[in-house]
Amino acid sequence: MSEKKPYSKPTIVRHSVGVLNKFGRPPATIPLKRIDGFNVDELVDQYGSPLFVLSVQTLRDQYKNLNRAFKTRYPNFQIAYSYKTNYLKSVCSILHQEGAWAEVVSGFEYDIARDLENPGNQIVFNGPYKTRDELIRAFKDGAMINIDNFDEMQLMEDIAEEMGKSLEVGIRINMDLNDPPWHKFGFNVESGQAFAAVKRAEADSKLKVVGLHMHAGTYIDDVSIYSRAAQGMVNFYTAIKEQLNVTLKYWDMGGGYASHNTLHTAYLPAEQTCPTYDQYAESICPFLLSGPFQAADAPLLLIEPGRSLVDEPFSLVTSVVAQKRLPSGQRGIVLDAGMNLMSSVQWYRYNFQLAQDAGQMLEDTVVYGGLCMNIDVLQQSTSIPPVRRGDILVIPQVGAYNISQSWQFIYLRPSIVAIENGKIHVIKKAEEREYVQQFEHVPDEFKA
Amino acid sequence: MIILRTYLRIIILSYGNLIFASHPFPALLVLTATFFHPAVGIMGLIGNIISNLVAKWMHAHNDVWKTGIYGVSGVLIGLALGMYAEPSIRLWVFLIVGAAFSGVISVMLGNIFTRFDLPIISIPFMLVIWILLLTIGITKGDSTSFHAITFLRRIDLWLFDQLPLTVFEYIKMFGSILFQENLLSGLLVLIAIGIYSRISMLYGLWGGILGMTIYSFIHGSLDGYHGLNYVLTALAFGGFFIIHNKHGFIFASLAIIAVGFVDLGTVELLKALSVNLKGELPSLVFAFNVVTIIFLLPLKLLPSSPQTLRLNPVPLYLIKSPETNLKWYRRWVGLNTRQRTILTFPFNGEWAVLQGNNGEWTHKANGQFAWDFVVKDEKGLQAQGTGLSATDFYAFGLPVLAPAPGTIVAVENMVIDNPPGEATTERNWGNYVVINHGFSEYSELSHFKQGSITVFPGQIVQRGDILGYCGNSGRSPVPHIHFQLQNTPELGSNTIPTVFAEGLINGNISTNVIPEKNDRVAILSVKSKNKFTLLGKEGSTCTYIVKKGWLKSKETLQYGTDAYGTPAILSGNNLLWYLIERPSFIEIRPDFKTIPSRLFLSGFIDIVGNSLLLPKFLQDGFEWDNGRVSLNNDQWVVETNGKVISIDPKDGIYNVVIKSNPNFYFRIVDKKKLL
Question: At the topology level of CATH, where does A57-309 sit?
Answer without folding.
Answer: TIM Barrel (3.20.20)
